[in-house]
Amino acid sequence: MKATEENEPKAVTSSLDLQERILEKGRELFRLSDSFEDGFFSTYRLFSKSLLFLENRPLLKLQAFRFADLFPSLSSLSSISRYIRIYFVETPTELPKWILLLLSIFLSNRLSSVVVALGAKFGIRLTAKFFILGRTYGSDRKKIIDRYKNGICSTIDILGEAVLSEKEAERYISEYLLLLEEVSKDKELSEIRNSQFPGEPTGNVSVKCSSLYSQLDPLAHESSVTHLMEKLRPILHSAVSKNIFINLDMEQYETKDIIMDTAFRIFSEPEFENYPHFGIVVQAYLKASQQDLQKVIEYSKKRKYPLTVRLVKGAYWEYEMTQSAQKGWEPPVFLRKSDTDKNYEECSVLLLKSYPHIRPAFGSHNIRSLSSAFVRAAEYSVPENFFEVQMLYGMGNSYKQAIRSLGISVREYSPIGEVIPGMAYLVRRLLENSTNEGFLKNINANSKDRERLLYLENTKQK
Amino acid sequence: MSLHHNSNFQNETLRDFSREEERSILNKGFTSIRNEFPIQVFPIISGKTKKSSLVVPVFNPANTNEKIADIHYASVADAEEATKESLKFFETWKSTKPEIRIDFLKKAADILRSQKAELTALISLEVGKGVKDIDAEIAEAIDFCEFYAKEAENIFQPRKRDLLGEENVYTYIPRGVTLVVAPWNFPLAILCGMTVAPLVAGNPVIMKPAEQSSAIAFKLFNILIEAGIPSSALHFLPGKGEEIGAYLVKHPEIRTINFTGSRAVGLGMIREAASQDLKFVKKVVAEMGGKNAMIVDEDADLDEAVIASIQSAFGFQGQKCSALSRIILLESKYDTFKSRFIDALQSLKPGLPEDPSVKVGPVIDSESKTRLDSIASQFSSKIISKLKIEENQKYIGHFVEPIIFESEDPTSPLGQTEFFGPYVTLFKAKNFEDAIKIANNVDYALTGGIFSRNPKNIQYAKEKFEVGNLYINRGITGAVVDRQPFGGYKLSGVGAKAGGPDYLKQFLEPISITENTMRRGFIPET
């Protein structure tokens, strides 16, 4: 790699200066988000406040998440109320005494216990609906279109159970193909898109590779890559013919290299080598992320059109920690959240430096991380329409509007799927994210705490 | 939080096969071990290689055209000589400082560690095991060496309870010549653990490996000798179990028999040992079979339960004593589990275990294949799914088709008899208590598991499930030394758990020594 190929910063700035500008950008984002807070998305605010009830109630939080994880396998109202008793009445939590008392009274009689069960069912479905767009694209496309009307694009992901067999994998492949079909045929979507987002492809879909092939196995690297390419080919073929963006998602550390190799190889096939709408993910919580990012950058430089890299922190932290502990390995992830945050910023810089060879998509709800990316983008003269921000559907809506108002595109990661099986997946995410001290605090923090959130741990002033 | 841990023992790390470097080292292992084929395996007594009149070839069970080794079988005369030599060396070995014996084990662990790739290849080719299972097995062998070394450090610290004028010491002495009769299914780890424990305790050992895995056993024997174990303390006798095994079991100079294998053979040894009229009680430590069950509760996470069941039932073709052979399902989960389980089985790839994408390999030998095929045809009406294996593959190796049965009757052989192969049967239970009852209603108590998110049922299982190793919300195979000491009771075995805190003591006799140190009113200063 020659130095001249790199995107140079336009002016040499001292690091203090940089920090100051990141802080200023963060404050601006918070200010802007406040102005959007009570409009369009106020129900979410209410919901996030109610989630805050679980803060500082660790036992209750644990039981609540466990219950939501269990919920999809409860088949009757009576089993729901039975488990509410086991999980919340018979297991000690920080529930206030009066709630406990009420709960026991209600659960003691058959009729009123049904009421409790129905309430829980309603509550959980409601929660799921905050995070899951809907059952299928066809049934819930209105929501996506509404989002587009409000200036927010989507990348659609199909949720579901783990894929244990090739039969199940086939079902997911046909779901992806159907989704591509439905998206491409949506006239209303294409009208809005054409008027509001002229450069945008027909649609944007995130593909979970583990749902396409049930036998992914790091030991069988070669055959995993070959099979995955076979499974992906019809999906990519369809996407190319319909001008739809395809992003390959990342999951566990152990499949990372399989997915990266698959991407490199399949994107280079003659049918796909000149297609502009492909993306992959880099997880900044991985110690190997910068090294991997370099590989992606080198690869992308050879392409006619740049790859998009969604830079995320990663959602499997606890999983990776337990896996590595059980196998006696060094954890592949940073142990401290602040190291991940710092690495995220370093990866952001790598991405921006590679302009115009990579299209960065900053996937984060952390205002500090995003501010840092924005400030650095300006420093490296990366135009605002060249990169974007990605956030999860249902989270941080006022931030999305704030970022939009800066002229930066925002894309939502929008899961579709059955609410009930999808719920299990969602809880895993919530469980993983609940230790990521970030988002809930971020959104509900008062202005003093917010200021604190804008510092990286190691840049914090005394 | 205080984590109770009485030693600083650390389990051996598994290899991370997502690293390309690790995969390429492994491939080189296959090439280099193949250069040694056919490995010549001889009986070795006190370091002397014995000639044999019977040489039996061993072939790759996945490809019977490939010859792995020539096994030169030991004779009864060799067995007699090994016993004599052992006896002769016993006093020397007994009085060797424990630290020296302990160091030999640590050295052996290092050598095992350095030969992982070749050992993996040999195990794969001689018994048809998959690479990840082998990796865990090699780690287990290393763990046994390190763990028993650490345990010996503790045990050989005499326990003192002195008073004024009286000294009390509680200490251990080795029992005497130990016969180790090992199985082929964990050809390295089990043989290693069964051998190094009595050795570090100070007993001379006669290794009698399984006929089917003598080449791996020979590698291990050589590693132990290389680590410094005196050749007079460890003898190697490959050969026919019915002949030299039976001879040695009866031998009046064998003090301890350390056995892992079938229930019939194990019980036979115990009877034989009990009936002998000797000046000591011959001790038999026996790890035998299982008819292991997994209970899937109505609130189970099926994503996890199905995948854990597939691994536990079909991993290494079900040829583990811990393997899953009964799945007991609560009715509300039955149909969904069944269809996902069948589909998952159908997605497994059969073939040569050295191919990393293969999940189903061969069974150990033609005898095993014939036996399993006949069980399949006997219960053909109960078969709900079987994984098809191509005729040409069956022709080249000892492949049987993995099968899922379904039965209403847990008292039938499908629910009672150990098959030692890739066969698993689904049963229905009315409720969780019923499921536990069905699970317990067998002769064995080895491994078992439940998938449940109901804390009451989890507690109930902890109290009532009759198994030596209970697993909750995970697969039921793959016990780890020290973390999950392994072994069962009822007809699954007798003796302490392998890789656990009581194991070494089985090869020792505890001695209490009391000395009155007062002489005519005079107490020596201490």
TrEMBL record, chain A:
Q: Which residues form the Proline utilization A N-terminal domain?
A: 20-131
SUPFAM superfamilies to which the protein is assigned, alphabetical: FAD-linked oxidoreductase (SSF51730)
Q: Which InterPro entries match?
A: FAD-linked_oxidoreductase-like (IPR029041), Proline_DH_dom (IPR002872), Proline_oxidase (IPR015659), PutA_N (IPR041514)
Which segments constitute the Proline dehydrogenase domain? 142-441
An annotated Gene Ontology molecular function: FAD binding
Keywords annotated in UniProt = Oxidoreductase
Q: Name one GO biological process term.
A: L-proline catabolic process to L-glutamate
Domain of life according to the entry = Bacteria
This protein is called Proline dehydrogenase family protein
Automatic annotation (TrEMBL), chain B:
Its taxonomic placement starts with:
Bacteria, Pseudomonadati, Spirochaetota, Spirochaetia, Leptospirales
Query: To which protein family does this belong?
Result: Belongs to the aldehyde dehydrogenase family.
Q: What is this protein called?
A: L-glutamate gamma-semialdehyde dehydrogenase
Q: In which pathway does it act?
A: Amino-acid degradation; L-proline degradation into L-glutamate; L-glutamate from L-proline: step 2/2
Q: What class of enzyme is it?
A: oxidoreductase
Q: Which Gene3D superfamilies does the UniProt entry name for this protein?
A: Aldehyde Dehydrogenase, Chain A, domain 1, Aldehyde Dehydrogenase, Chain A, domain 2
User: Boundaries of each Aldehyde dehydrogenase domain copy?
Assistant: 54-509
The UniProt record lists the EC number as 1.2.1.88
This protein's species is: Leptospira johnsonii
Kindly list the GO CC terms recorded for this protein: cytoplasmic side of plasma membrane
